[in-house]
Amino acid sequence: MKKYNKTLLAAAFIAAFGLAGCGSDGSDGADGVDGVNGVDGVDGTDGTSASLSVTTVEDASQFTLTIAPADIVVVGTDDFSFKFTATAEGTGGATLPFSGLEKVQLYVTSQSENTTDTGAPYLWTSHLYANDFVSDNAMYCTLTGTATTRAGVEVEACTLVEDTENPGTYTGTWEHDGNAPSVLTDGDANDLVRVMLRAYNVVNADGTSISDKLLSTPIDFIPATGELAVSEKDSVSNAACIKCHSSLDGYADTDMRISNISAHHNYQKVENCVACHNPAMAADEDYSDLGYNISFNAMIHTIHMGDELADSLTGDALELFGEIAFPAEHNECTVCHDNGTQWNDNVYEEACVSCHVDVNLATGDNHNGIVPASDAVCSGCHGAGSLSPMEAHSVNRRADLADGLVLDVVSADVSAGVLTVTIGVELNGETAASGTDLFDYLFNASYAKAILIGTLDDNGDYVQGSSISDETMFVVNDAGQIVLTQTLEETTSLDGQTLYVSSELSMCGDAETDMIVATDEGCDVGIPANIATKYFVFGDTAATGVETTDNMRFINATVYTAPTQVGNDRTTADEAKCNACHDNLAHIKSPRHGVTNFTQCADCHNNASPVGSHHETVQIESADGTFTVVEGLEYYNRDLVTVAHRYHSGTYAEEASGVYINADGDLVNYPADQTNCQACHKDANADGDAMPFFDGTGTLTSGKTSVALGNGEFISPVTEACRSCHAHSGDAALAHFKSNGATVFGDNITSADAVPVESCATCHAEGKTYGIDSVH
């Protein structure tokens, strides 16, 4: 018999009776009582969405590794463990968890007070070296708990696990006998510890490995409290290194990273370097017999003193450091030491002999026969006074002596065919006494003894005139001035011309007294005369020049007929950036020329110079260490643009000093990124606007349209600038330049006005597909 669902049957009857019993005069029954709500079901587990994490990244700066002090065991007897997160920039710039890491490397270093009488007051100790685990001086973490070193040796590693419920979060544990080598069992939990992390095998969307190292921002903390801390030893900031070595793009100002250090393919931060280069590593037998100290403080001194120490270095030290040149003055400690006075306050053998390599404190050689009992007694002589690092190295000597001789160009007049220039003289802070002969104070009487005088052409470029170096005119008169005269040629007229007046005088400076002294009294440094280049505009009838400005510092300045219009600087190079690396331009040409700025350099190095280059050929290093000429590659001008580009790209060298190209074709001694034009050029003009190389019409922002050669020819300026770096392209580059309108040596263009404008800007102006800002 068929069974019916009683509930459904009852419902049908109720429905039927209800319909039949409701008439027009009937009434509804009372509402029933609500039933009890059912129990809510258990929420399901959210699935992992592919859009919430990423597995590739396009640039190292878009990848971030983060460790918290509370998430890592570094000292004591607790079992090692650590946790970190990895994030990366996803589509639309969103920060997302980075999933899929298979290998990382952990660096752990402690800073402790030195309780001995040898070495620095505080010392770094690599935990791995202290634990005799010297595999690449770091501990790997992998999915398998083993790793292969760079030398191909399989070693124990911590086991890396990604949290499946929280992609981008990873933990590491030590699954082998004993504790992890990154844990210093007898370490002091109150010492500062520095931790950094490196990720491997990360690729972009095309599967190409990321070129820069993927490094976490190092953290300094106290394990006992978990509080962040500040190192006592960081006397050199990353910003100081970046002044020469360029900044790695994409990182915050609070996380500045160095772009171009070739060793180990760049570890980006000073804090990262000391993870390996510390006393624990230096004491290891694999490094202790190298012939130089591998600790960072000692090694970095030797590196930057390399060219000065070449005669004293031997073995690996000579090969590695002997030809490295430092772009600033070696005695100016604060060029690098910009973070405290430790460099002056802490005196100990390791730091000192890394520069003074010929000093043997064990025998007293080159130390006046003195053999100190220990580092503890060094400060007795060198802690203060004339033998302290500050005084013994004459730190800031050029700055202290900069106002030793101040020249103030008072006037420039023309009368009866004679130019008269009057200059006020202040010597050592006082108006120079009558009868003072400035030639008696020259650092080198064979050079740097002229007042520079010339004119500006219609574009504002320098045209070298007849500078004055007649000794009889450099005697101070009763008014505290020197009066210089020059008879103009009959065909020379200054009507409508702009005259410049500057100086190349290099004076005899005594850093001990901070005075300019007479040459026969002896001195230790050449100091340029302090002069502001001044400009005078001569009208059609006016005999007296009008001073236009006392601080105009440019090469290609637009010529103005009224002094109120002066100030539009069109020079794209930046003196401040030169000084950031060189500290000051004075020592670059000292003692040959006492100059400090472009306006003085341009007296000789200008695009109208008829003299030509004194370095026509290009020489590069051969396999045997000698330098050979590159056939067919020559330069015949001396304008500042070409000379600066050539020097910094290695095509100016004749020996292994300064910047040169070695036998492997590598550029040596230029510390910045070669493609970073902004290392030397301005980011913006005086108004704060972007400073492009081209002005929008195809010509250079400077307005320069030609460069003079020593043979009377004129050539194209853009090509000459480009080929001074791109010389390696040879005939192919030359053909490209010429096909785009370039005039080069041998084209026999004998008039500046006949040089056509190159079409380089069509493709290479900023913002174009192949613009300078893109291809560089």
From TrEMBL:
Asked if the record carries the keyword Iron, the reply is yes
Tagged with keyword NAD = no
Tell me one Pfam family matched here: Mtrc-MtrF_II-IV_dom
Tell me the keywords, alphabetical order.
Answer: Heme, Iron, Metal-binding, Signal
Q: Which InterPro entries match?
A: Cyt_c-like_dom (IPR009056), Decahaem_cyt-c_OmcA/MtrC (IPR020014), Mtrc-MtrF-like_dom_II/IV (IPR054337), Multihaem_cyt_sf (IPR036280), Multiheme_Cytochr_ET (IPR051829)
All copies of domain Cytochrome c, residue ranges: 364-446
Q: Specify the signal sequence span.
A: 1-20
| Protein name per its UniProtKB record | OmcA/MtrC family decaheme c-type cytochrome
Q: Which organism is it from?
A: Shewanella metallivivens
